[in-house]
Amino acid sequence: MKGIGIVPNWKKRREVEAIITRIVTFCQQRNIQLFLPQSDELVAQEGVEVLPLESFVGKADVVIVLGGDGTILRVARQFSGSHLPILGVNLGQMGFMAEVEPPMLETSLQKLLDGHYKVRHRLMLSCRVFRQDRPVAEYTALNDVVISKGPFSRIVYADTYVNDKHLETYPSDGLIVSTPTGSTGYSLSAGGPIVNPALDVMIITPICPHLLHHRSVIVSSSERVSIRTLTRKDEVILTVDGQVGFSLQDEDVVHVTRAPLTTPIIQLQGSDFYTLMHSKLNKVIQREPERV
After folding, report:
1. For 41-69, how does the pLDDT look when each residue is reduced to its tens digit (9 = 90+)?
2. Number of domains in the chain
3. Which of 40, 50, 175, 201 minimizes the number of CB atoms within 10 Å of its CB?
4. What one-character-per-residue DSSP string does 178-199 give?
5. Which parts are annotated binding residues for NAD(+)?
């Protein structure tokens, strides 16, 4: 392995600095070059080369992300198309994508160096917004594409089609189209199913629908989901991975399809989706306050 890139979430500065020190110590003993992106937060360390983030491509064999799922989502979009695999070290809450917990850092790094891992290619979504039949915005998502109401408590009407066949007009707080990776995020909170990320599907989940029946619908990733927003004068927002926003207008159409790109995520030997899911969900249950 010629080099490892490290992308930290500097909002967790204390934890990040401790983890970087451990990675530097581990890699210096094995003559492995480390790269960090340029940042005002950065404190120079021996054995670490500081580069623009885009320069990681061609120099690093893998990118280690220090943070939670939100940090990984951002990095996945930044490196989309580069084929650089990502290994997440969880400094967040759930961390479904960041499978390495800090106490297991050195053990996990050794597995990485020994080649005891697989690269899992995660489905991504392509999202295009059309206004009066003209494209006005285009995004790529790893987790989900969400259409939701603005600051006022008014119902959003999402006229939803699959391959131009009418599925449902959802009167609701919004609609989520997620990947299997995103099924453990907002979609899960809205009552959607947990889906193994190895499956090539998309999940359509309404948010608080004003319907007597409401269930998520799972469709093939080869299909196209189209949502026509019926907003009148109400504010409706398109959100990509919970991080990028775009204001929608009445009669805008959002097309969601499988993206031509994937996100390569490293799965270390001994790890699997179901064990990870059990561990992460139990972690949340353990944090719940004791009921009196």
Report:
1. 666 667 788 989 889 998 999 999 999 89
2. 2
3. 40
4. E-TGGGGTHHHHTTPPP--TTS
5. 69-70, 74, 143-144, 154, 173, 184-189, 243
